[in-house]
Specification:
Helix content is 11%, strand content 50%. The protein is mainly beta. An 8-stranded antiparallel β-barrel has the order 1-4-5-6-8-9-10-11. The longest helix has 11 residues, at 2-12. The chain starts with a helix and ends with a strand. 31% of the residues are buried. Residues 1-13 have low confidence and may be disordered.
C-alpha cells in the first residue's frame, strides 16, 4: 500500500545514492528547494502509530508541496527556511486525508508549517564525492499555530550540482496543540516523526 511505501522510503532509504556524482558546484551560496530531483524528490511527511481495537499500525502521509532555501557561507549553513503546504498531505485513504485536514490539523486556520534554522551549522566535513555526511540542525518548527525549537540529525549529500538533505525529526503532537477528536476511532500516539527529504540547486 501507499502507507507502507512511504514508510519504507523514509526509514530504509532517506535518499537514493544510485548514480551519485562528484560535486560540480561550490557549496557556498544560496540553495533553493526544487520539486523534482529524480529518485531524491523533495517530500515532507509524518509517521504516527495508531491503536485500533485489536490492531496496531503506523500511518504515514506525505506532500511534495515544499518551498524554501538555505544559505551557506564559508562552509557554514548560516540561514535556512522551509515552508510546507499542509493541505497537500496525502495518505492512501482520501477520507482519512479530509479528516486529518479538517478535524486534526485544521488546515483552514493553519495552512502551512514552517521550519527556520536558528543556529549556524558547520558542513565542511560533508564529502564532495557523492558520499553522505551527517550534521545536526537546530531551528524553530511552527506547526498548527504553535512554535517549538527542535534539534535533529540530518544526512547531507552533495552530488553533481545538487544538495540533498534528509532526516527524521521526532515530535510530540501535544506540544503543537494537535489533538485527535473523541469521535475518531483510532487512538493516535502522541509521539511521532516528521520525515524530511529536501533536494536543492544553487540559485
Amino acid at each position: 500500500s501507499l502507507v507502507i511505501t512511504i514508510r519504507n522510503a523514509f526509514f530504509n532509504k532517506l535518499f537514493v545514492r544510485r548514480g551519485c556524482l562528484y560535486t560540480t558546484t561550490d557549496v557556498n551560496g544560496t540553495w533553493t528547494i526544487i520539486p523534482n530531483a529524480g529518485d531524491n524528490t523533495t517530500s515532507v511527511g509524518y509517521t504516527f502509530h495508531e491503536l485500533l481495537p485489536g490492531e496496531s499500525r503506523s500511518t504515514s502521509g506525505t506532500t511534495h508541496d515544499v518551498t524554501g532555501e538555505v544559505t551557506v557561507d564559508g562552509g557554514t549553513l548560516t540561514a535556512g527556511n522551509v515552508t510546507v503546504d499542509v493541505n497537500g498531505l496525502q495518505t492512501d485513504v482520501e477520507k482519512r486525508d479530509i479528516n486529518v485536514r479538517r478535524t486534526i490539523l485544521h488546515t483552514d486556520d493553519y495552512p502551512t508549517a514552517t521550519f527556520t534554522v536558528n543556529t549556524p551549522v558547520d558542513i565542511t566535513d560533508v564529502p564532495d564525492n557523492g558520499e553522505p555526511g551527517t550534521v545536526e540542525v537546530t531551528g524553530m518548527l511552527n506547526l498548527h499555530g504553535a512554535e517549538k525549537e527542535v534539534t535533529a540529525k540530518f544526512d547531507v549529500l552533495r552530488t553533481g550540482n545538487r544538495l540533498v538533505i534528509a532526516g527524521t525529526v521526532p515530535i510530540n503532537r501535544i506540544d503543537f496543540g494537535v489533538e485527535t477528536p473523541d469521535f475518531v476511532a483510532a487512538k493516535v500516539d502522541e509521539d511521532g516523526e516528521l520525515n524530511i527529504r529536501l533536494a536543492m540547486e544553487k540559485r
